[in-house]
Amino acid sequence: MKKLELRLLGGFELRTAEGEPVAGPDTRKARALLAYLAMHEGRPQRREALADLLWGLSGQKQAASSLSQALYSIRKALAPPGVDFIDATHEEVRLEPGVIAVDVMTFEDLARAGDPSSLHEALALYRGPFLAGLEIAETGYEHWLSAERSRLEGLAVDAGSRLIALRDKPDRTSAADAERLLALDPYNEAAHRHLMLFHALSGQISRAIRQYEHCREELKEDLDIEPSQETRDLHMRIKAGEIPPEAATMPAGPSKRDGTFSSP
């Protein structure tokens, strides 16, 4: 049973399994170290590599000392007296498996699923860039952070795109999903079309047309291209009144998550 929850999507946040906030390690590098170990849960990491990751600008002796201090800070923040979540030797360090539920792991499992409910939950769980606000001027850490941010954002965009493709008819929940997707990928025409159709079916024709104009402006200003024929055709159908309102028939879709997550 997981004893703590670590949220890394959209920032760094540590909570008990019951949802109560935990202060966490008291330095930025100790937090970054905990995040790195949590992302490699159960897999030993060489001390030398960890020191180079976060203290690469320091001398070898100073880096090793700083690593030990950061591990002490993590131990103090995570465990009650007599309990140690960190398994460390002279050569390696690892976070004990089964101790911390990491939102990234839950997000990845949901995003790789193919059903609409899982994809919806994955998109809701992606609250923002990986470790937002925890940038540290160390080359090794910067490279790792950049790669993970890009990978996870790409996974969120892919999940959102697959989710929209599975929605034959938009509803309020899927429209919110389309808006989340556009926040990540403003050029996603499928998401724009989904919102155009949602507004048209809701009887908000002017809003549907504004959505098309917003799509066209984004594509033209940033990419110097026009919307696809499919998007233009939908726009013309909406303007011609070929899509009658039917808001009363639109289902609510799956409910939104409350922001919590569980371990896989």
TrEMBL record:
Residues 240-264 are annotated as: Disordered. It comes from the Bacteria. GO terms for molecular function: DNA binding. Keywords: DNA-binding. The keyword DNA-binding applies. Gene3D superfamilies: Tetratricopeptide repeat domain, Winged helix-like DNA-binding domain superfamily/Winged helix DNA-binding domain. The keyword Coiled coil does not apply. Residues 255-264 have a biased composition (Basic and acidic residues). Residues 102-239 form the Bacterial transcriptional activator domain. Residues 19-95 form the OmpR/PhoB-type domain. SUPFAM superfamilies: C-terminal effector domain of the bipartite response regulators (SSF46894), TPR-like (SSF48452). It holds the Pfam family Trans_reg_C. One of its GO terms (biological process) is regulation of DNA-templated transcription. PANTHER family: TRANSCRIPTIONAL REGULATOR REDD-RELATED. Belongs to the AfsR/DnrI/RedD regulatory family. This is Bacterial transcriptional activator domain-containing protein.
